[in-house]
Amino acid sequence: MLEKEKEILIEFPIKNVDEFMEIQEKKRQLLLEISKYSKEELSSFQEEILKISELNSTISALLMNHISFFEEFEKELFGEKLTYRESEKKQNLFNGRV
Fold this sequence. Notes:
Layout: H1 2-10, H2 17-34, H3 39-42, H4 46-78, H5 84-89
């Protein structure tokens, strides 16, 4: 599952968002199942856990690269990027009178 997620992220931009979201949901469900086990019960799977950790690091790096790309793209289109908090501080059309 993580290998497929990695493949999807390498194909930039993401061509199949639905498949990516489906993988995210499956990962969430799997993590919920794994969380039911104790550390001792999982100790025999150290090699698999290490591989999962390495794949997650790669996937995190790919996601951060995508985020950086979109932030730079936004900056070029709209000037300095704004965070959501900064945009919330701006006055709206009604200036809070509604």
